[in-house]
Amino acid sequence: MPLKRINSAAAIAVLAAALATPSLAAEPAGAPVADFTLANGLELVVIPDHRAPVVTHMIWYKVGAADETAGKSGLAHFLEHLMFKGTAKNPTGHFSQVVASVGGQENAFTTNDYTAFYQRVPSEKLKTAMEFEADRMTGLQLTDQVVLPERDVILEEQNQRVANNPRARLGEQIDAALFLNHPYGKPVIGWRHEMEQLSRDDAIGFYRRFYAPNDAVVVIAGDVEPETARKLAEETYGKVARHNNILPRQRPQEPPPVAVRSLTLADPRVEQPVMQRAYLVPSFHTAKPGQSEAIEVLAHILGSGSNSRLYRALVVDKPVAVMAGASYDSFAFDMSKFGVFGVPHPGVSLPQLETETDTVIANVIAHGVSAEELERAKFRMIADAVYAQDNQVSMARWYGSAIMTGATVNDVRHWPDRIREVTVEQVQDAARQWLDKQRSVTGYLIKDVSPQAEKKS
Amino acid sequence: MPLKRINSAAAIAVLAAALATPSLAAEPAGAPVADFTLANGLELVVIPDHRAPVVTHMIWYKVGAADETAGKSGLAHFLEHLMFKGTAKNPTGHFSQVVASVGGQENAFTTNDYTAFYQRVPSEKLKTAMEFEADRMTGLQLTDQVVLPERDVILEEQNQRVANNPRARLGEQIDAALFLNHPYGKPVIGWRHEMEQLSRDDAIGFYRRFYAPNDAVVVIAGDVEPETARKLAEETYGKVARHNNILPRQRPQEPPPVAVRSLTLADPRVEQPVMQRAYLVPSFHTAKPGQSEAIEVLAHILGSGSNSRLYRALVVDKPVAVMAGASYDSFAFDMSKFGVFGVPHPGVSLPQLETETDTVIANVIAHGVSAEELERAKFRMIADAVYAQDNQVSMARWYGSAIMTGATVNDVRHWPDRIREVTVEQVQDAARQWLDKQRSVTGYLIKDVSPQAEKKS
């Protein structure tokens, strides 16, 4: 922990200098990032980081839950699990043992827009990791013997992560009510009744359709030179044939949102009620230039940390809440969400909390934000980004998730410049345009005290 | 009009006799209905009705808006329009002229579950009608020259029927919020942004996939004997080849509904606010035996006509509403909706009206309905069905829509018996089980008086 603090302080100094020097504004910070594409269409992004002799090797596939066929929800995530089931060369568990034996780590994750796998290993094991990923890109062997027990695993995951988690259930219901047409309305983990029917054929069909070098991006952060990484990639990934039927991602889009929506979820396990709202807003990929950055700044000023508008008004000044905040993720291939939430102070009802929250939002819409608030927000956001770069995995994830959602390496590198350019007018415009209740769903999570509550849950 | 009244009175007499004679309960009323299938898989239902020398000839395809590919909403209805665009034998408008020249009528309609076309013509023109429908079942010729202007027609239809109709807009939003996963959540007319992109290829692909003798049912009501109809059908429809790739309709199903949902739609054109609610309930096809009949009786007692619970409580006794009612359509291939609505008395707010409506519903859940109410409802429902049989087109539509949503000719004929069997316990159980707010979306339609209202609409 002390070490982390020293790093942060140093970073702030560097950052303060950068912020204070307008002439540097267009110059991206950090080490040069290499970005190139192999003959078979595989894109590689290499972020040199020589602080320790380790590399984080990630492969990102441009396929997520939003690309599933209707009725097959959960399939992208199911396949993520099945990718560990072995090939002719690497039977189940073999590679995980290799990674563990050198003190490495591995993991995988699935979102609406992508599926990614990664290993953090000693630098000299980079080629081994590449060989493994290249092998399972097309060599996966699936039998009912491995598929069916793994389906029980994802069902149990759904049980733990969603069915027994009232906040997750609330989020699932809000997404379903927010997206009327786009598959972002479906849970990434899947609807349980559809997960129960997923088959080996579903998994294989999805795998053959989407897993290919020209539908993937490898992100490597760590102790390796780009040219070395390229050579290793050509020797491994380079041998996998291009897939000739990869179609661009094209999902059904939303109609214009016109109804103010709300929902109430009662769950016997709720100890603290919650008010949570989501507005339909553009992502970086779907926004006009500057729009998503203004929304990022707005989310920060409105609801990030204890200095934010919502926290100060609702938790400190009144206080009607014990927690309040806002959030926005600009990384989505299609439209994104702007979130607002609050946990009421004991004795305060959710409608009261919602009214107070609306007052804070209405105030930003009517009067905008101050120049000082804006500068503080920019400084803090850019500082946070610098801190994140300190963590190899976080940095690789930042690049990966950006590229998977339609951004480029350059977009990532110039993000601080774009944040610096946001004006107070743009922040107010963003609030006015996007924080319109017609674009939103407000969810209440309450404790279910009905006699049937036990039975229902 | 007097004629109609005489018919109705006669029907009531017949019906009263039938109701009073338990031994006749299992005997379906009306003329025998013939039901047979040609060698190519086309099913025919013939309902003889010799009162006048006319026939109603309908062809029903087992494809509707719920069978559209995601992102192509409105396609089923678009194809319904395009079916009038001509074949090599019958250029655009030719058949319509023939029908008109003999004093006939024609029309077509599309729902979530089916697309149907019909002609009402002099009996001797039945074969002509069959020839025409058999011809356009596979012979449709579509060029961009006819497709693109017709797309403008359906866009204008969307404009008139939905975009400029606040009640229709409310219904669209309620459906979208009620169905979280099933395509019944999409409007049958389509989402405008998707309709604008529908192409000739989309239409042709849909046509080739779904239009085939073994995916259709011909319903003929009128002055024709079943054997004659069969012979004519074999000479016309019988020549169309069976389609070997017709798959059973399988749509994504709903997760269990868990959140109480509500929405508010503000529209500057609203003159009367409305409260409208929809509950997710079983259809005849998805229900256990007796369930959908109990829900039908419940809808009748709760909200059909001025003697209903809702009308009496909200419009007559209090009065908090100028109109109130309930509805249920048992004909859906997948799940169906139970609707409740009310128009508030001037000076009464929508939340007040909703609270009073909830009280009426809670009362039925807690105390059920009386034996006398039940008998009155059954008598009236069966009488209404008898009246409907008086209209050839209505009768043909009843059979057609039943068969398209998974019922059989026998199910239709025995419907009065099943209604007679409903008990007071079943009605109360239906209310308790299905009128649970967790299964529902409540929509408020209000007048938009904001300065931007003009701009938004």
Plain-language structure description:
2 copies of one chain form a homodimer. In chain A, the strands form 2 sheets. In chain A, strands 1-2-6-3-5-4 form a 6-stranded mixed beta sheet, with helices on both faces. A 5-stranded mixed beta sheet of chain A has the order 7-11-8-10-9, sandwiched between helices. Chain A has helices spanning 2-20, 75-82, 94-101, 126-138, 144-163, 166-178, 192-195, 200-210, 226-235, 291-303, 309-317, 350-367, 371-389, 392-404, 409-413, 415-420, 424-434, 453-456; strands spanning 34-37, 43-48, 54-61, 105-110, 115-122, 216-222, 259-267, 274-281, 321-328, 336-344, 440-447. Chain A contains 18 helices and 11 strands. Chain A is an alpha+beta fold and 457 residues long. In chain A, helix 2 (75-82) packs across helix 5 (144-163) and helix 10 (291-303) packs across helix 17 (424-434). At the A-B interface, helix 6, helix 7 and strand 7 of A face helix 6, helix 7 and strand 7 of B.
| Distance separating the two termini of chain A | 41 Å
What low-confidence regions of chain A span 5 or more consecutive residues with pLDDT below 50?
Answer: 1-28
pLDDT averaged residue by residue of chain A: 91
Helix segment count of chain A? 18
Q: Total strand count of chain A, please?
A: 11
Shape of chain A: globular
* Subunit organisation of the chains: homodimer
Helix content of chain A: 40-55%
Major sheet of chain A: size, sense and barrel closure?
Answer: 6 strands, mixed
Write down the Rg of chain A: 23 Å
List SSEs of chain A in N-to-C order: HEEEHHEEHHHHHEHEEHHEEHHHHHHEH
Which protein chains make the most extensive interface, counting residues with beta carbons within 8 Å of the other chain's beta carbons? A-B, 33 and 33 residues
Secondary-structure-based class of chain A equals alpha+beta
How is the largest sheet of chain A built, in terms of strand order?
A: 1-2-6-3-5-4
Share in β-strands of chain A = 15-25%
